[in-house]
Amino acid sequence: MKQKILIVEDEFIVANDLRIMLEKAGYKVCGIAPSVVKALELIAAKEPDWILLDIFLQGDKTGIDLAGQLTEMGIPFIYISANTNQGILEAAKATLPYGFLVKPFREKDLMVMLDIARYRHEQNLKYNHHKEPPLHKQIEHIAQKQEPVSQRLKQISAAMHPVVPFDFLWITRSKPRTTTKDVYISRASDGKFNILSTDALLKETNISDRDFKTWNSTALAHNGKPIFNGYDFRKLRMESLSIQALSDHYKLESVLITEIERDTDVFQFVFFNQLSDLYTKVHSGIIGQFKKSLELIIAKIILSKDSIAQTPAVGLPVVEKPIIKKEQAIEIRKDFNGIIGNSALLHAAFKKLELVAPDDTSVLILGESGTGKEKIAQTIHKLSPRKNKPLITVNCAALPLTLIESELFGHEKGSFTGANEKRIGKFEQANGGSIFLDEIGELPLEAQVKLLRVLQEKEIERLGGNYTKKINVRIITATNRNLEKEVAEGRFRLDLYYRLNVFPIELPSLRDRKEDIPALAAYFIDKYGKKGSSSVTSISTDALNEMQDYHWPGNVRELEHLIERSMLLTEGEMITKVDLPNPTLAASVAHGDHFKIKTMEEMEREHIMGILKMCKGKIFGPGGAAEILNIPSTTLNSKIKKLGIKFEFVK
Fold first, then answer.
1. What SUPFAM superfamilies does its record include (predicted)?
2. Looking at 319-323, 387-391, 393-397, which range is the least confident one?
3. What gap in Å lies between CA 318 and CA 548, rounded to an integer?
4. What pLDDT sits at residue 189?
5. Residue 318's pLDDT is what?
């Protein structure tokens, strides 16, 4: 039976082109709707199997608004839009689509995206992924934590920001009017969030207590209007002295307002941004879908007994912990390949791992460097029916640009200069087993195209070959990059992103699971005690408390190296001192101050930009950047593209 597809698109020419393509491919188009209202009528009458959904439509409602209802109805959908900026992609992602097609597109692009979407839908039905939006899960978990209010608010802000970007957030009770529980959250230039009490806000903005009380005696009057950009925002400034003071100090240019009713109380969440035209009805629509999350913030944080004024603004509470001894029983789940920890976040990842491991579903492992992504990949393979076949690991970041295709797909003898014999590529080596593509975000666009074909067609073609070879490989990928950002900036293919992101497993950073530090320390003491001649068997409470206060930018890998180093430097059986980085600098990292540890990529980008500026943008020839850097101009061009360096940056 032909699958029925409803097209929700307000541009008739685009919609008609879609209809022709779909009918040619054997689908049945059951209607075209230019608005959300018309779409809902057709859904009720025609009962489509799939919906192709534009974001900006006729009327007040957007495709984002409709998407929430489609998820509740269990109707799978794919976005079609000309807008792929990061804000739109993040907002769209929060509604859990099965794909995203960028206008203009070719017939082949549409068919590939539909294939990807069907595959994702089948997997999601199997794992029942679409029960609840991920943002609500994140906020629920953070709100329930036994941590200071300010710490939880920072974590919630970081979770919300990709969906609704803001530079300042004001949470206040508007009915009955009171400012005693007001919360102010500012976003620093380095992306960290600062939680301000009223006193701290007045001090920072140089506003007198008397003026503040006068200005805030009434709630922010917005007459039900959610968005104020440009002229509307300037008019709002004139009507509200408090908005004027805040916007002057923080350079705010637009606002998005939503109200949450709780019993007889009404709270306002007022999101500000420094861009004058940022907020659209997409953002008001997405906020509407996450009102349960905002209600949870009010119930568990704003109305909690803790006070922002009384809670330390930074850091975690120091908890006295017993000395950890080598002989102490450590709960190690052998099925998880020596991955240590009993925190809720880690066990959530374990549950997902156990669920997906026995299947052939593609898995994308997300997490910072040092969180154990490779161990998770090994464990997925170990718990799968493919465990007796090879697991081939490929570090995409380490592949030479000129040899990527040869490494992944192999080559025939004589296919290029230096190809003196036939080479079997990594995919062929993994046939029957699994392939782990680490740092997939580093793969160049040209190789991404070929990878997508391998995933879709399940076949490879060696360089210089004239035939294709079928392969049976499970794909496991990992990245520490924000792939949505990579897509928005043109460095990662959107269709490949949706094909890989079928079953994501997010690994928490060590700073988000500090309760696991004692068990990890004990494990590494035991591990290196068996390997070497150290007599160390335990660690003191003071040393553990020092480790609890540290931010751990290098995660578990950094902790392991610290324990190994400390054991070598310790005389006796107990580690009493750990050589952590400068506490002032570590605190700055943890608390969002100006100090920031730069990644290798950031340093490489800065270095290349510096050379380009010195050469006034010249890349090729004598005196060009490639000559100075002593690398081929083709390699430099690839790096410039990968690092997102634009010409205007080097003027």
1. CheY-like, Homeodomain-like, P-loop containing nucleoside triphosphate hydrolases
2. 319-323
3. 7
4. 81
5. 35
Cβ pair 154, 191 in contact under 8 A: no
- The H or E element containing residue 81 is strand 77-81
Q: Which two tokens stand for residue 333?
A: 């789940």
Residue 503, φ and ψ in degrees, nearest 5:
-135, 85
pLDDT greater at residue 532 or residue 357: 357
Distance (Å, whole) CA 526 – CA 156: 36
SS (H, E, C) 430-486: CCCCEEEEECHHHCCHHHHHHHHHHHHHCEECCECCCCCEECCCEEEEEECCCHHHH
> pLDDT tens for residues 141-173?
888 888 888 889 999 998 888 788 899 999 988
Tell me the whole-structure pTM to 2 decimals: 0.66
Distance CA 307, CA 182 (A): 10
Q: State how far the Cα of 296 lies from the Cα of 563, in Å rounded to an integer.
A: 39
| Domain edge (last residue) among 506, 528, 559 | 506
The DSSP letter of residue 494 is H
The answer for residues whose C-beta is within 8 angstroms of residue 349's C-beta and 6 or more apart is 376, 505, 506, 507, 508
Distance separating the N- and C-terminal Cα atoms of the chain? 59
pLDDT of 328: 39
Amino acid symbol at 249: H
User: Nearest-CA neighbor of 599 among 369, 364, 396?
Assistant: 369
- For residue range 425-477, what is the model confidence (pLDDT) as tens digits? 999 999 999 999 999 999 988 889 889 989 888 899 888 888 889 999 999 99
Which tokens hold the place of 21?
């393509």
HSE, CB side, 13 Å, CA atoms: give it for residue 200. 15
The answer to whether residue 571 sits within a structural domain is no
Q: Which residues pair with 33 in a beta bridge?
A: 8
Over its C-alpha atoms, the chain yields an Rg (Å, rounded) of 27
Residue with tokens 């608390």: 591
Return d(Cα 307, Cα 329) in angstroms, integer: 39
Q: How many domains would you assign to the chain? A: 4
Matching residue, tokens 């949470």:
171
Structure-token pair, residue 624: 């060009």
Task: Tell me the pLDDT tens digit for each residue of 22-56.
Answer: 999 999 999 999 999 999 999 999 999 999 999 99
Q: How many residues does the chain have?
A: 651
Domain containing residue 383 = 344-506
Do both 355 and 471 map to the same domain? Answer: yes
CATH number at residue 252: 3.30.450
